[in-house]
Amino acid sequence: MSDPSSSEGEGAEHQVEPAGSDAEDQGGPPTSRKRRRRGIPWRAMMRVSLLLAGGLLAILSLLTIWLRAELLDTDTYVSSVSAVVTSPAVEASVANVITNQIFTKVDVEAQLRDALPPKAASLAPQLADGLRSFTHTVSLRVVSSKQFEDLWIGANRRAHEQIVAVLTGQPGPHGAVSTAGGQVTLDLSSAVATVNQRLLSSGISVFQGSTVSGPNGGKVVLVKSSQLESVQGVVRVFRHLTVLLPILTVLCLAGAVFASRDRRRGLVRAGRAVVVAMVILTVLLLLIRGVYFHGVVTPNFSKDAASALFAGLVGFLRQGIVVSFLVGLVVALGAALAGPSRSAVWVRESAVGSVRFVGQHAKEGRAGLGPVGPWVGRYRAALRIGIVALGIVVLFAWSNPGVWVVLGVIFGVLLLLWAVEAISRGQPTAQGAGGGPA
Predict the structure, then answer these.
(1) What does the DSSP 8-state code read for residue 433?
(2) What per-residue confidence (pLDDT) applies to 21?
(3) How far apart are CA 252 and CA 232, in angstroms?
(4) 71-81 confidence digits (pLDDT tens)
(5) For residue 124, which of 47, 113, 175, 263 is within the disulfide window of CB 3.0 to 4.6 Å?
(6) Which residue pairs, CB below 8 angstroms and at least 24 apart, start in 127-135?
(7) Do 325 and 401 touch, CB atoms closer than 8 A?
């Protein structure tokens, strides 16, 4: 007589064997197949790659747009540098340059020593210092005047138009200009002549007949970089990259969102990628600032003056960084508030409470909207997408959106979304075929 338990065990074994055989026929046990399926997370790898590419392309997009604006758009460049002419540091530095240019051409101390009696010849150095101080004062008055401001803007405009002609290979409106050695210079010879004339009218004739002729006469180096000649070779590519790179940035970030199983988390990651990219670009801008100071700051052109000039040149880029940072932050916060966290739930409940209050009044009161209400309730989902898309289009279509413009567009989008929710919730649930129950 056989043991029932042993028979049951054998039967169990026989029942298990086919499953094991099928598993072996399919390439191994289920656990090993599951492990192989998880061995290469293609979706996660693609998502991370797209996020990294999107962040990098966001940085490159802003840099190329800024470079194109400053290098190839004379109006943008003049607008950047025109404000710095009123900076006290710039005025003092330009006055130093003009004073040094005048005193370089004339040995003032020697002329004073020859003009003074022999017993007073020892006073020549002190008189020369006093004359230098007076010349600097006159130069400062000149550079602080409206006449010099117009001269500064005109000189920068002419210089930039000539640089654009060199970079694009087109004939310049004011003759040829050389950027050999990677230097962009500003010609202040007319300002030097103005100071010289004022000194002459004040009775100081020691500089009469002196000029600022020569290869460096009356020139101020605004940009000194060994990379300028390399930029000249690729500047044409920038004109196309300024259109292509932003499109690729949006496509990469959108691809990262669609590659995520949870689209909401994908939006959070995309917004964070933009925010992190703008932080990295800010750090990069600080490094560029240090390199710029190293090449431009001289005893005659102070660090404060260089700082004011740099702030004017990168003002357009800084504005783009702030705008992109805000857009990324709003996208990340908006997607996060749609999540299950306690803070997100509290914010949503507070917003829904206000929506219900308005919707209830629209439903029970006399604020009837006629056919508009049912239509909004039916197409609520489509209206949400359209409002967000409209906000994005407005930001991209705006030629130079400032911080307030971005905040205004964001506020308008949120207000419209809130209005759609309030109107749709004020309709009977039977009408919410496209928008779902209230």
Answers:
(1) T
(2) 43
(3) 29
(4) 788 888 888 77
(5) 113
(6) 131/204, 131/206, 132/99, 132/103, 132/108, 134/204, 135/99, 135/102, 135/103, 135/195, 135/199
(7) no
Contact (Cβ atoms closer than 8 angstroms) between residue 435 and residue 379:
yes
* pLDDT, tens digit, 9 for 90 and up, residues 101-155: 778 777 778 888 887 888 777 888 888 888 888 888 888 888 888 888 888 788 8
Distance CA 286, CA 241 (A): 24
Distance CA 216, CA 181 (A): 13
Widest distance between CA atoms in the chain: 146
- Give the residue from 195, 196, 201, 208 showing the smallest Cα distance to 139: 195
Write down the pLDDT at residue 51: 94
Q: Comparing C-alpha atoms, which of 258, 262, 255, 246 is closest to residue 327?
A: 246
- Give the C-alpha separation, 44 to 35, whole Å: 16
Q: Are 59 and 248 in contact (CB under 8 A)?
A: no
Q: What is the DSSP letter of 173?
A: B
Report residue 210 as tokens. 């002196």
Nearest to 194 by CA among 115, 95, 120, 267: 95
**Helix, strand, or coil here: 397?**
helix
Task: Give the strand pairing for 183-187 and 219-224.
Answer: antiparallel
The most confident of the ranges 17-26, 127-136, 300-309, 346-355 is: 127-136
Structure-block tokens of residue 92: 């003092």
How big is the chain by its Cα radius of gyration, in Å? 35
What percent of the chain shows pLDDT beyond 90? 11
Query: And the tokens for 240?
Result: 């196309």
Q: CA nearest 138: which of 186, 185, 174, 103?
A: 103
Spatial distance between the Cα atoms of 333 and 327, rounded to a whole number of angstroms: 10
pLDDT at 425 over 50: yes
Q: Looking at this protein, which amino acid is placed at residue 253?
A: L
Distance (Å, whole) CA 319 – CA 327: 12
- Give me the DSSP letters along 161-184: HHHHHHHHTPPPBTB----GGGEE
How many whole angstroms separate alpha carbon 28 and alpha carbon 34?
A: 10
Task: Assess contact for 78 and 299: CB atoms under 8 A.
Answer: no
Model pLDDT, residue 19: 45
* Summary mean pLDDT of the chain: 74
Instruction: Identify the three-state secondary structure at position 112.
Output: helix
Evaluate whether 131 touches 206 at the Cβ level (below 8 Å).
Answer: yes
pTM (2 d.p.)? 0.59
* Helices within 297-337 (DSSP H only): 303-313, 315-337
